[in-house]
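Supplementary Methods S3. Input chains for the assembly prediction are listed below.
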Amino acid sequence: MSIIELKSAPAIEYAYSVVGKRESEGPIGKKFDFVDKSDKFKMDTWEKAESEMQRIAFDGVLTRSGYNISDIGAIFAGDLLNQCTGSAYGLAGFDAPYFGLYGACSTCAESLILSSLMVDSDKLPRAAAVCSSHNCSAERQFRFPLEYGGQRTPTAQWTVTGAAAFIVGKKSGFHPRITAVLPGTVVDKGITDISNMGAAMAPAAVNTLTQYFNESGEEPEDFDAIITGDLGYEGSKILVDFMKNNGYDISRNHYDCGLIIYDRERQDMHAGGSGCGCSGIVLASHYLEKLKNLDVKRILFMATGAMMSPSSLLQGLSIPGIGHLLKIEMLSK
Amino acid sequence: MSIIELKSAPAIEYAYSVVGKRESEGPIGKKFDFVDKSDKFKMDTWEKAESEMQRIAFDGVLTRSGYNISDIGAIFAGDLLNQCTGSAYGLAGFDAPYFGLYGACSTCAESLILSSLMVDSDKLPRAAAVCSSHNCSAERQFRFPLEYGGQRTPTAQWTVTGAAAFIVGKKSGFHPRITAVLPGTVVDKGITDISNMGAAMAPAAVNTLTQYFNESGEEPEDFDAIITGDLGYEGSKILVDFMKNNGYDISRNHYDCGLIIYDRERQDMHAGGSGCGCSGIVLASHYLEKLKNLDVKRILFMATGAMMSPSSLLQGLSIPGIGHLLKIEMLSK
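Predicted structure tokens for the full assembly:
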């Protein structure tokens, strides 16, 4: 496990975000590109709605970029649905090479890491990274059907209804650039509570982030923001505490996309947002904007994933986690 | 979609195959590295058994190679289980960066493509590609619980109980080498019959293979074997027919791993083997041996995947397919 420097500093050239009702009503709700307040995206099942979100997101970023589909060397895409059907069906209409990924909620970072590696090495001229989650398809697959109306525990997170698409390439000019990546390893510390995913993923986040600082020699204060994907309140606390034990104080500049997306007081999503879409849409809208405006110039972006399935938990297994990290910077012109 | 040439010709340095009872009793049954005739691999559920197969396969290839885990730049792994738990749990104990993939039965080729691209570009010193399927976990997830004892249709294929692990690197010497790759696009021609997966995947195979010949200028007779992963009897017939329509006669040198793994007369697995493990174990044992013995010197290896889920079929959607292709050669010393 070691940091891979990207000498050519591939640019996140374009991004596009698609969200549902609750996300559009949150603190950064105005920043998203496409909103469907019905959460249905004109489809008759939640799973089809999620695929449609991926289609809209990729179509949106392609249109915005002005590229033709033949300009896209490959699409790296994934989601939370069984057999990753959100991605396969959503992107089936586009004639570009397709690499299906499964990194649970880390998929946004996983897809950006692979895209940037392929572009940096000139294996592909540019690549697209796409991910999604939908609250209604995820809840019924992982927990309970919505109609059941179950009470949620205080540590439960709310799966974000959101899809994000990015195009990574070598465009010149003033763009957020991926200058290093650190893919994570699978870490299983024995957490079994599916209603406390933050706690399950935090050890993997600690593992990757500690490794990053140890190996790079950089310090937390070298960054304007250290951003995690969806650790939520529970996982974020664990991350900050454990990092302090490891000698790194990230308490002043750690942010979690799961805590940015909803308003805790007004919307009450319990421990925050989660899902592949969570880190994807917050990066695509909020943080890429902040980078372009130079509100932040140098960030670490790490999305974490909980790699269990409903079956594996029923069979008594604990939740393996993973954290994939990217360093994203605005470099001098 | 275009062919990517790998100038450094990364080697498939080592491989290891793990199988169950039926695979060990087939025509190439003696070639596999590890057999458990109970299919249980000392576990108490089929899903845990599948994870254990991945663990044994990766541990096997690592031991055989003599590398330490820290020598492995990353593991690219996937399987058919919901949330790809076969891979996540099976490989959680190894401290190496992990990229989870979902390519359905194309996963073996997808993981080898990504491994070889990373090695060729020197982003990683070497990478591991791991995949698995287990008949009993797949049947109850995708079709019926085994206890139901349902009658299988004549076009049905038999999910292979098998796991394969490969190490791709830049070792010098006489090894099978990956000299070009062509990642596939998602193709959906409207097939809805889950008991005829070969037919669902064949259009994607036709798409990738035609593209390969069109773009490379090579002809089918330039290869000693054109190997597909698990099209089975039905899909293979469709592939050969459609390729002929496209101007390429592959009838004399097309082989399908799903037709190699079982004896049609003696074992009667209907339309042949399938699953991520099918192409994985046949490549790892049978074809790598044939390459090293120079029985074949130049092959195309294309694994195809059917990217549906049980839910997507219940919701009336058809089966999207994908075909990922690699050119593997024994180069002069």
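Chain A has a mean pLDDT of 96. The radius of gyration of chain A is 18 Å.
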